[in-house]
Design goal:
The chain is an alpha+beta fold. The strands form 7 sheets. Strands 11, 19, 21, 22, 24 and 25 form a 6-stranded mixed β-sheet that branches. Strands 1, 2, 3, 4 and 7 form a 5-stranded mixed β-sheet that branches. Strand 1 and strand 2 form a beta hairpin. The longest helix has about 40 residues.
């Protein structure tokens, strides 16, 4: 009997413990559901932000962080409110025209918060349904800096589908930007680069936006650059074309050896057929008399408008100057 009652006591303790555990788990689950529900609801609260203002004040830094705190009241979900309350105060990035800035003294400028209200709403990105702005104005320091205009150089990694090629170079808009910073640093910079433009298997014109590679302690007047590249389909052909001398004075003959060269060219894809008569290769007499060697590179001085690239073989021709038979 004692043995039987002992087993029953252990089973009872185990069942009681299991029931308490299930109760705790149920309470925990209920709390989590309540918390998730509460965080999904909207609340009207006050928010505090630092403001980084970007503007285009001539001869001054492009951006500055407010010395004051922007306080606003708005409605937002509990998730966002909780994130705002945890950690450091968040910074909103606002872009505004120079006309909203009021010069106070030296490098100090002030901006009325109502004048940038729409910019603040845009910067908040829909996270906060703004009700009103508590702060009247914000002060910013925009120190004077030197600037100069430099060209933008594209950096690219582009591959083309078979029988496709670029027609010309990558075009940028704008193709130059103003850079701002210390005068001694500006002297070392003569251009800025775009981030690498990647494309593969290209079989038609491409375009898009790319950013500039940042330079430490320098600011740019533009953050993004528009690029475009014209791409065409081509046909490659070869033919023998005569090389003719030009500018030879009377009484002299300039003999070209060989008299014909192989011209390999690419043209825009079409049904048009070309002949050697459509091309004019020449060597100039003045180039011959001004060179030590008797070898010259023939110059393609005339070709159809659809031709976009060419090569000749051999690259050099020999030239021999003789007295003409009429002169003798």
């Amino acid at each position: 009997m004692a043995s039987g009652s002992g087993i029953s006591g252990k089973e009872k303790d185990w069942k009681d413990g299991k029931e308490w555990l299930l109760l705790l788990l149920s309470l925990l689950l209920a709390f989590i559901i309540w918390l998730l529900h509460s965080l999904s609801l909207e609340y009207s609260v006050f928010f505090e932000y630092n403001v980084q203002l970007t503007s285009s004040l001539e001869g001054r830094s492009r951006s500055s962080v407010s010395e004051d705190v922007l306080i606003v009241r708005g409605r937002s979900e509990g998730y966002y409110i909780l994130r705002q309350r945890i950690g450091r105060r968040k910074t909103v990035r606002v872009t505004a025209p120079a006309t909203v800035l009021v010069h106070k003294a030296e490098d100090m400028f002030s901006v009325g918060c109502e004048s940038i209200k729409s910019n603040v709403v845009e910067a908040l990105g829909g996270n906060v349904n703004l009700e009103f702005i508590v702060t009247d104005s914000l002060d910013f320091v925009f120190p004077r800096i030197t600037s100069k205009r430099v060209p933008v150089a594209p950096r690219s990694s582009i591959s083309f589908r078979g029988q496709y090629m670029p027609l010309g170079r990558i075009e940028l808009r704008p193709d130059s930007v103003d850079i701002y910073g210390d005068a001694r640093l500006l002297e070392t910079v003569d251009s800025v680069m775009t981030e690498t433009i990647f494309a593969s298997g290209v079989d038609g014109p491409i375009q898009g936006m790319c950013s500039l590679v940042p330079v430490r302690r320098l600011e740019f007047s533009e953050d993004n650059i528009y690029y475009s590249l014209n791409v065409i389909r081509y046909i490659e052909e070869s033919m023998e074309v005569p090389v003719k001398p030009s500018g030879v004075p009377e009484g002299k003959d300039l003999i070209v050896l060989p008299s014909t060269v192989k011209l390999t060219f690419r043209r825009v894809f079409s049904s048009t057929q070309y002949s050697p008569d459509d091309f004019e290769l020449t060597v100039r007499y003045k180039d011959f008399i001004n060179t030590i060697d008797q070898e010259l590179i023939p110059e393609l001085v005339s070709y159809p408008p659809g031709v976009v690239h060419w090569e000749i073989s051999p690259r050099y021709v020999d030239c021999i100057l003789l007295e003409s038979s009429s002169a003798r």
